[in-house]
Specification:
Layout lengths: L1 H23 L4 E5 L2 E5 L3 E3 L3 E3 L7 H31 L7 H25 L7 E5 L1 H22 L4
Antiparallel strand pairs: 1-2, 1-5, 2-3, 3-4
Helix pairs in contact: 1-2, 1-4, 2-3, 3-4
Amino acid sequence: MLVLLAGIFVVHIATVIMLFVSTIANVWMVGSSNTGTISTGLWLLCNRTCIQLPVSSQDEASLKAVQAFMILSIIFSVVALVLFIIQLFTLEKGKRFYMTGAVMLVCWMCILIAVSIYTARFTGAMWYSTNSHHGYCFILAWICFCFSFIIGILYLVLRKK
C-alpha cells in the first residue's frame, strides 16, 4: 500500500511540473519561416526574439480562455496535492480520498477544456510560417490530461489502510 501511495504521489508531482512547463513555455505550435524556426505558446511568439502573441480580435477570447483554464488546472492540481498530504495524515483508516479525487477531476476537466479550445481554434493557425506542427507543450498538456484523470480515479478508489 505504501508503494502505491508513493507511486501516486510521484505521478501527481510529475503532473504538476508538466502542467507548469506546458503553460509557461512557448512551444505549443512550431513552424518554420525564412528567418528560422518560429514557436508560439499561450503567451508569446518566439523567433529569434519573443514578442506578444498576435491574435485576431475574434480569437482573443479563446486564447484568454485557454490561458485561464491552464492556470486553473495548475491551481487545482496543487490544491489536490496539498489535500492528499493533509488527508494522508488526518484521514481515519478505511476512508477514501474523495476530496482529493474530486479536486483532481476538476483539474482534469480544466485541462480538457483548455486543450480542446486550443485544438479547435489555433491548430494550424500559424499564417506566418510553413510546416507548422504541435510542439512539446501541447503534447505535455495532453499527457497531463491523461495523468490527471487516472490519478483522480485512483484517489476516488483508494482507501487509507
